[in-house]
Amino acid sequence: MSDITAVPTIIYETIQQQRVLHPDRPVLIGVAGAQGSGKTHACTLLEAANRPRFAHFSLDDVYLTKAERVWRADNISSFSAVRDEDGNFDVLHVARPQIERLLLTRGPPGTHDLGLAKNVIASLGKPLPTRLPRFDKASNDRAPVTAWPVFQGPAEAILVDGWCLGATPPSPTDPINDVEREDADGIWWRETETQLRKVYAPFFAMFDAIIYLRAPNWESVRRWRRQQEEQLLGRDLTPEEETKLDRFMQHYERITRSMMAGGHCADVVVELDEERGAQASTRGRL
What we know:
- By secondary structure, this protein is α/β, with parallel strands linked by helices.
- The chain has nine helices and twelve strands.
- The chain is 42% helix and 19% strand.
- It has a six-stranded mixed beta sheet with strand order 2-9-1-10-11-12, sandwiched between helices. The protein has a two-stranded antiparallel ribbon with strand order 3-4.
């Protein structure tokens, strides 16, 4: 079961099951997995093999724009409500550059434009052309709309992949890494948890099925992510680049570990080995 077609086959079988249940509309399938788990690659292969019937985009494609992320980070990190001597609330502006830096980092819940994702999903069910959003990581901003590929609808299936798709809020604990320790007042994590619980959970509930590619351990996730970077660069990372990447990964660590321990609402769980091979799959309500 560990060949390159195993995960796309599981996704395809799930699509066909859902199409039987929902023959009158496109089925919406989520594919979740930690960074480097192969979720985007599997969806890309499946979309290419079933073009033009299947549409695909990633949560990475619907990040907030750079300007929106800057505005959000400044507002959440800088404003505090306090009571005066008479018991009335007042709002103070307090510069918290460390917290602002955490909030600026794209990826965690709160940094995606789920409204855009919902609009794209709705459009893909209609007999009209739909532009699929794209994000330019080189410029750290959303690509111009003119650069978005066009899908001619309606789609039979819509695939959306994302690292935290289907995640449920982790239980609160003491900080587990240096990034969380920088969040001394818990501002960044409370915002992340609130977004996951109040904004992302209803979005996840829209999906007909979510497939979760479960990594064997956090160490494998770190190695996979490093391999991704080295593939893009065409060389090994320098020690300085490895340190920077490790810090970046810490923004994702708590939710990733929680999902690996069962903190998700996925319908199908695919167990991956340390080389990303699919070893087994279990199905829930499907």
